[in-house]
Design brief:
Blueprint lengths: L6 H22 L12 E8 L9 H8 L3 E8 L2 H14 L6 E5 L3 H7 L21 H5 L11 E13 H6 L6 H7 L3 H14 L5 E3 L2 H9 L19 H15 L11 H9 L2 E7 L2 H9 L7 E4 L7 E8 L7 H11 L2 H11 L2 E2 L2 H6 L13 H10 L10 H18 L3 H15 L3
Parallel strand pairs: 1-2, 1-3, 5-6
Antiparallel strand pairs: 3-8, 4-6, 4-7, 4-8, 4-9
């Protein structure tokens, strides 16, 4: 799989990474419990989706600098399935890894309801791990009494990824600037989709799913599912209703490939060309490369999306209270989240850094896989305009209820109004009401 590199910054990043890692090596010697008499430690990491640490070679780099450490990572592609499994483990107190990933939509729930299940990173010597991050990123994972429950990794500024070969075949322009102007609004995106559908080959839809478009559109709003006071407003929010109506129009106009995201069928479609565009937060770059492979290099491109902003996703790393190696886990987390490593992750995988220092380092990055798209510029500008979203305790549950309901509209022909009611019912069931 091809990976983007920037010759200008690689050497500087490498020297900074080495210096940081050597310092942490010196600080970490002899700390924490060991797995064997020879002092070797296995740190377990449990994540969802593609964080990119392994793919970018960061684990290999860390273990070379820390020869006593082995890192074992497990993955679940579907974050919803991951969250359910995590809740089961937290309830039972067993089976948890030393490091557990956490999606931004779950943060408020953890901070307000499950703080006692996670270790305050201040007690592990890395209470300052979020100090270099954009302010809202670190604030979201801090409890009212000051506990730091996790370290912020990436954020999800949005754009549109598209297939240049499919655009050409349908007679559409492929220039990024021209496309950004044509789909400067979501209505413009739908209108261009109709032009594509009129000339595209059978079986090539405009986009993957209504769920993807809905999630991207609501991600542009400060207030989505809960207001600043924490009151749920998902059933009356203008932002949610507008995004729902736009997504329903997408389906009605035959512009969706009707694929459920994170499924094997969806993954396969990245390489078979079943859809031409994709609502594309920065972390999706690495996912596309993993699914489309080398054959997709040069076929994909990236342009600023409707509104030229938005935030979809972003994650944290936490240490459960039952972790076997909390000190070693904390040292690994601090190293992975340092600005040098965050910059490397973006350069190689597309995970946009929450570190302000890393953001400054990657603004000129381009990506050969995506026709040398100026991904540093595109996502930096999106991030700059990104709203500091209000996070509610049930954001993950609510978002899933809406995307599941849109799946009903797509795949079973359920009327949008009926599907909306199903979403309302499913949220209430999840709340126990």
């Amino acid at each position: 799989m091809a990976t983007p590199r920037v010759r200008r910054s690689t050497a500087a990043l490498g020297s900074a990474v080495l210096a940081t890692a050597l310092l942490l090596t010196a600080c970490s010697s002899g700390s924490g419990s060991k797995d064997s008499a020879d002092g070797k430690v296995t740190i377990t990491v449990d994540l969802f989706g593609t964080f990119g640490f392994k793919e970018a070679g960061l684990y290999d780099e860390y273990t070379k600098l820390h020869p006593n450490v082995t890192i074992k990572q497990t993955d679940t592609q579907d974050e919803g399935q991951y969250w359910q499994a995590l809740q089961t483990k937290l309830a039972g107190g067993g089976g948890l890894a030393d490091i557990q990933g956490l999606e931004v939509g779950r943060v408020a729930s953890v901070v307000q309801k499950q703080a006692d299940k996670f270790t305050d990173l201040k007690t592990l010597g890395i209470g300052d791990v979020n100090d270099d991050l954009v302010e809202w990123k670190g604030a979201a994972i801090k409890t009212a009494d000051g506990k730091v429950l996790g370290a912020g990794t990436d954020i999800g500024p949005e754009a549109i990824c598209y297939r240049t070969d499919l655009f050409q075949a349908a007679g559409l322009p492929t220039d990024r600037t021209e496309l950004a102007a044509k789909w400067s609004t979501w209505q413009g995106y739908l209108d261009l989709g109709k032009q594509y559908a009129a000339k595209a080959q059978a079986g090539n839809a405009w986009t993957d799913s209504a769920a993807g478009m809905f999630t991207a559109e609501v991600g542009q709003q400060k207030v989505r599912y809960s207001d600043e006071a924490g009151k749920p407003v998902y059933d009356s929010s203008p932002a949610v209703k507008t995004a729902w109506n736009d997504a329903a129009a997408l389906v009605a106009d035959g512009l969706s490939a009707k694929l459920a995201q994170w499924t094997p069928e969806w993954n396969k479609a990245f390489s078979t060309g079943k859809f031409a565009t994709l609502s594309c937060p920065a972390w999706m770059i690495g996912y596309i490369k993993g699914q489309a492979g080398d054959a997709g290099s040069g076929k994909w491109d990236i342009a600023p999306g409707p509104g030229k902003t938005g935030n979809w996703g972003g994650s944290y790393l936490t240490v459960p209270r039952t972790a076997k190696h909390p000190k070693e886990a904390a040292e690994l987390i601090k190293w992975l989240n340092a600005k040098e490593q965050q910059a490397t992750l973006f350069t190689k995988q597309g995970s946009f850094p929450s570190s302000t220092g890393a953001q400054a380092a990657i603004k000129d990055v381009t990506d050969p896989y995506f026709n040398n798209a100026p991904i540093g510029q595109i996502f930096s500008e999106s991030a700059k305009a990104m709203p500091a979203q209000v996070l509610g305790t049930d954001d993950g549950v609510i978002g899933k209820a809406f995307t599941d309901a849109l799946g009903e509209v797509e795949r079973t022909g359920t009327a949008p109004d009926t599907a909306w009611k199903h979403a309302m019912d499913n949220v209430k069931k999840a709340d126990g009401n």
